[in-house]
Amino acid sequence: MVLDWQEYKQKAVEAITEGNVLLENRENALPLDINKTIAIFGRIQLNYYKSGTGSGGLVNVSRVVGIPEGLKQRGASLDEELLEIYKKWVEKNPFELGEGWGGEPRCQKEMPLDEELVKQVAGRCETALVIIGRTAGEEMDNFDERGSYRLTEDEENMLLLTRRHFRKCIVVLNVPAIMDMSFVDIYQPDAVLYAWHGGMMGGLGTADILLGKVNPSGKLSDTIAYRLEDYPSHPYFGNTKRECYCEDIYVGYRYFETFVKEKVRYPFGFGLSYTEFSYSDIQWEAGGTERILVMVTNCGAVAGKEAVQVYCEAPQGMLGKPAKVLCGFRKTRCLKPGESETLSIDIARESIASFDDSGVTGHRFAFVLEAGDYAFHVGKSVRDIQGTLHFCLDELEVVEEVITALAPVTAFERMRNEQGKLGFEPVPLSTIDEQKRRMEDMPEEIAYTGDLGIRLADVVNGKHTLDEFIGQLSDEDLSCIIRGEGMGSPKVTAGTAAAFGGVSDHLSQLGVPCVCCADGPSGMRLDCGTKAFSLPGGVMLACTWNTQLMTELFSRTGLEMRANHVECLLGPGLNIHRHPLNGRNFEYFSEDPFLTGEIAAAQLKGLHSAGVTGTIKHFCGNNQETGRHTMDSVISERALREIYLRGFETAVKKGKAYTIMTTYGSVNGVWTAGSYDLNTTILRKEWGFKGLSMSDWWANISRRGQEPDKRDFAAMAMAQNDVYMVCPDGQKHDDNTLESLASGELQRAELQRNAANILEVVIRSQAMQRLLGTAEEVEIAGKDDEVEEVQKEVPCFRVGKEITVDLSTVEAKRGTSYSFILDFEKLGDYEFILTAASDAGELAQIPVTVFSMGTARGTYTWNGTGGKPVSFSGRTEIFSRYTTIRLYFAQNGLKLSEMAFRLIAEK
Ligand code: BGC
Predict the structure, then answer these.
(1) 783: pLDDT confidence band, cut at 50, 70 and 90?
(2) If you average pLDDT over residues 321-348, what whole number do you get?
(3) Closest to 82 (Cα-Cα) out of 36, 34, 128, 133
(4) How does pLDDT run across 177-190, given as a tens digit for each residue?
(5) Dmax (CA) of the chain
(6) I need a labelling partner for 760 at 20 to 30 A (CA). Which of 3, 345, 482, 803 fits?
(7) Pairwise CA distance, residues 62 & 223, whole Å
(8) Burial of 291 by CB count in 10 Å (0-12 exposed, 13-18 middle, 19+ buried)?
(9) Could you tell me the CA-to-CA distances from 396 to 283, 376, 393 in Å, in that order?
(10) Which of 157, 160, 181, 180 has the alpha carbon at shortest distance from 169?
């Protein structure tokens, strides 16, 4: 099997072009005239943000195409004098990495602009392209401050001056999530383009849009309101202990369209094009009410695509509903001027049903369609409706009855639609006992047989059943199989997040291979420095509204994973954009669960076509980074079912997800890794999920009414969160599984059920195929300078309290990295001392960046040392037994000698 690297890049560029969202384009300011020189302002032109920060942004690439480079590659000419000025300034004001994990600045210092300079450049160029950049990510929410959600003073000045002196002022936002847009009113730019974080090819796709090589077709996956305070979750967002989701189902446009339309600046689903589309012949197919047909015609002058959306306006009934709910969408192919395409859009009853968690409709705990008129608005956005179809229900219809699960135990008042007026009502509380449920659902125990010589391969080959295999597993084996090992387990691809399956000697002897998991949604994170393809962020991919393209792109990511022996990508991320300041919004798709689920299912389809999978995360309610380990999210059953679980449900049912990750936090009183209702009642019994559920890394686990405890693997196993991520050593770990088994609390049958869930995933993995010798290896063809040679051997050294690693044979070549793994006996704070020499001139600058588990710990710059060794020291916290240390060399000319590590404080 071959992965064509050039085609992969091409697919990514296609996705980037379709994910750019054009919000303003006065008097056709865009596309730019390729024959006219463009003046680019903003330091981020030289430091393009390919992704946000944290686990979802740590893909190693050797080159990222920024916007100026993209424009040049596509034939545009830039004002080189201005570019030089920026280059010189950036050299003196290099990109600040900040304080490592969760500590990267959300923006970089901007070059202050002198009006004279702006005037001069405006004398030679008609157009100023102003690029503004932001980042955010894991453990790093945005702030409602300048330099984060808002512009800095230098940025405002840049807009003021370019607006004043240039004929055209175009703003490009290289940002992880939506930001304050009040600058549009103040500075009136001619065009505004959300270019998001586009991964390593980002600048090229954005250049295609700016130059009109491709017509923009991206549409917002979130509502942009005038003010941050306008978002319904705003008063409740950002707690660290408990957060009641009082806005309930009224998230994003569901709230704005229902109660406060006037507060919206750019509506959900909105995005401009360089052409015009007309919609006609909107009708139900063949007299039914399951499929809508719509003819879309390109009536403008240039070719382009259009994302057609269908919103359901359901009768208010007893429940009260949002004014509109997205229930279908489809993107056209690229239509030439004058060309038409008839799209058919399926409308599933499930996607227009409401969940009754109080019983007001007479059907408590059911998805229902209340009687009345259902209007289906077909449009270009939630606001721009082109035609409406109807159907009438004479009587209430029950779409699905479920059993109550995961309901709140804390009383609060939630929003309610009272004839278009905002009201509040008490939320229904839990009526059940999960422990009783657990006992009633107890599986049958498989009798213990001891080792009968059955190997996992015998199950794959149909010689024995999985139950027969599991019968051989001792208590000890069962306690090991629920341990995921990592990070950086030497049992799988170097520098990855985890191994699961055969993590102990005996499991391995029984023929269970280790399966490899690597972050994350925007491509593979390989902490040992191996380069991988960096994809556009989740929000940008959602803005494509193109499911087919998602499948095509991720089928290539799947092949790339296979080539690296990675079986589970830790993504896509399916949490809901409940509030614009959530740091991980860049990894997640949308404020809408329908769009979220469809995009996720399409990505999974692509990964599955390559024989690997994606782990949908974080299940569920991880909608802010602040307090994510400590906070209890209190959410009504209705909001869970209609909003926060919905995307996951689609990914399981339609996308056939078979690995899922729970969260760090608690939902309705129980930390999700110990939540029986979440992992068993809803995920498996109701949705029919077949596969394994894993915890987030070093997550808390809890039982109702008790404090969380990371040792409580028993609670996790009982809940059917099958794997704890991660333990330093799968063979032995300080957890309570055996203790709890011996006390008769945790049942052997439950652990056997976890084992079956895990082994089923192992059996279908490429790791199993490799063990059987039947795996077809994937070769990557057509790689170019974006992918450099992989370090063949990544050595591993055991560390007691200190170690000195000899680096004298390592060649510190510009643009390369050297990695080694340290296997620490003791975790805690370490000091490191890196020693090197250089024969270069006294003023030479030779920087080395030290990464610990993918996170930069510091950049140390040597000058010429006259050949004498010079040392730099730094500190790093070691929190994982296996830690990959990577040294990145930005220049030639350093002779490395050694790197020493010394324990300062054990933790
Ligand atoms: C994140 C996960 C990630 C895991 C492994 C956690 O900190 O929340 O999304 O997959 O680490 O890196």
Answers:
(1) confident
(2) 98
(3) 128
(4) 999 999 999 999 99
(5) 89
(6) 3
(7) 35
(8) middle
(9) 24, 18, 7
(10) 160
What pairs with residue 791 in β-bridges? none
Helix (H, G, I), strand (E, B) or coil at 741: helix
Check 357, 696, 712, 735 and give the catalytic one: 696
- Angle made by CA atoms 356, 361, 366, in degrees to the nearest 5: 35
Distance CA 825, CA 466 (A): 36
Indicate the length of the chain as a whole number: 907
Cα–Cα dist 382/273, whole Å: 16
Is-above-0.90 flag for pTM? yes
How is residue 657 annotated by DSSP?
A: -
CA distance 618 to 665: 10
Q: Best mutation site among 487, 517, 519 for ligand 1, i.e. most ligand atoms within 8 A of its Cβ?
A: 519
Do the beta carbons of residue 655 and residue 689 sit within 8 Å? no
Q: Ligand 1 centre and the CA of 137: distance in Å?
A: 11
CB-based burial of residue 183 (10 Å sphere; 0-12 exposed, 13-18 middle, 19+ buried)? buried
b/e code 133-150 from CB counts within 10 Å (16+ = b): bbbbbbbbbbebeebbbb
Catalytic residue check, 734: no
**Which amino acid appears at position 111 of this protein?**
M
Please give the Cα distance from 110 to 18 (Å, whole number). 29
* Element housing 515 (H / E): strand 514-518
pLDDT per residue as tens digits for the range 375-410: 999 999 999 999 999 999 999 999 999 999 999 999
